[in-house]
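Reminder to self: tokens first, then the designed residues, so the page reads top to bottom the way the pipeline ran.
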């Protein structure tokens, strides 16, 4: 569904009824509207959907492209106020992910066996990364879901 908002409307005022969030394929749907919310931010929602898609396709490459971990976590975080905007995600990709991808990493990517994609919320993207890297980028790491949030997402 494409929705047009008035051009003079502040982006913070652009909200849609939560029923529109359920038009997304269930495996790509973030949990933004799983707790009875009446409306949602469609721009933050779209970033999360794209992040979940990227997780399904690329999170298995994190051992050779570790900068994907902070990018994917900030695109899919349950805390919408901490989620990247589309422009922040693109800037992070251009400034941090692309420069760190070398030809040897690109070659190694082709040798990595792709696992069945794990759900974005259950895959630990940081588990095999160097502790110094994890400390440096800790501010980008996804925090655990609050218990109520986890329970609501598992029932849907």
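Designed residues (156 positions):
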């Amino acid at each position: 569904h494409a929705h047009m908002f008035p051009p003079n409307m502040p982006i913070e005022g652009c909200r849609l009824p939560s029923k529109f969030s359920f038009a997304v394929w269930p495996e790509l749907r973030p949990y933004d509207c799983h707790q009875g919310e009446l409306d949602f931010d469609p721009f933050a929602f779209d970033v999360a959907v794209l992040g979940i898609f990227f997780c399904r396709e690329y999170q298995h490459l994190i051992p050779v492209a570790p900068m994907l971990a902070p990018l994917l976590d900030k695109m899919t975080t349950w805390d919408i106020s901490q989620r990247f905007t589309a422009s922040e995600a693109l800037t992070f990709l251009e400034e941090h992910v692309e420069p760190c991808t070398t030809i040897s990493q690109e070659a190694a990517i082709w040798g990595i066996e792709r696992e069945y994609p794990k759900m974005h919320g259950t895959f630990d993207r940081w588990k095999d990364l160097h502790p110094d890297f994890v400390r440096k980028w800790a501010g980008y790491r996804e925090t655990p879901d609050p218990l109520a949030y986890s329970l609501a997402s598992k029932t849907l």
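Residues 119 and 152 are 16 Å apart (CA to CA).
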